[in-house]
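Service request form, structural biology core

Requester: graduate student, group of Dr. S.
Request type: structure prediction, single chain
Budget code: on file
Notes: please return the result as structure tokens.

Sequence provided:
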Amino acid sequence: MNQIKAVLFDMDGVLVNTEPVHFLMWKEAFHNRGLEISYDVYKGCIGTTDGYLMDLIWDHYGRDFRGDKKFLEERMAIEERMPKEESFPEMPGVREMLQQLQEAGFLLAIASSSPVSRIEAAVDHIGIRRYFSLLNSGENVARSKPAPDIYLDTARKLGVEPSECIVLEDSGNGSIAAVSAGMVCVGLDNPDSGNQNLEQAKAVIHKLGEFTPELIRSLEKI
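Core staff response, request fulfilled:
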């Protein structure tokens, strides 16, 4: 196995604890259209794109919001209305973790299914943009997680091989994407992300303080 050179992060549920807030935003948007969605249905889209959620809504409720630009605009208006402090709550220990990894010489990048605008707003709000060489969005690739596209595209843009990357993910879809890309995956067990299947991950941690250069180096040898 190649030496790890780059650390790739999912964002929602890993760097910012946004999943509970995202669900409330979507729930309100669908409620305004006369549809009550359950968290059990919503959690299937965690780690993917808005389009993937639209597919889930069609599959479970028979309502088609795919391509409904007005609905997505209404959803964005709800997000704009909510305070940013609620929209982007940082995960405990995120700054210390990023500082430690950067000082250890790793390239750091975000590879998120979220839109570019949401990624930039989140990292600027909590003041962590300076740690990252690249902010990459699922908007830039053809297929969303669990397909490997976002991780392969991020490795290419960083100029490293997939086998030289390690990924921190909190979702089953994301961990499948990382492993399918040929990368080492570490799962973050975040209760707010729902009961996610992280069996694809080579290791599972319960707080960001456990994601250290020492852990990364130990996984190179497995």
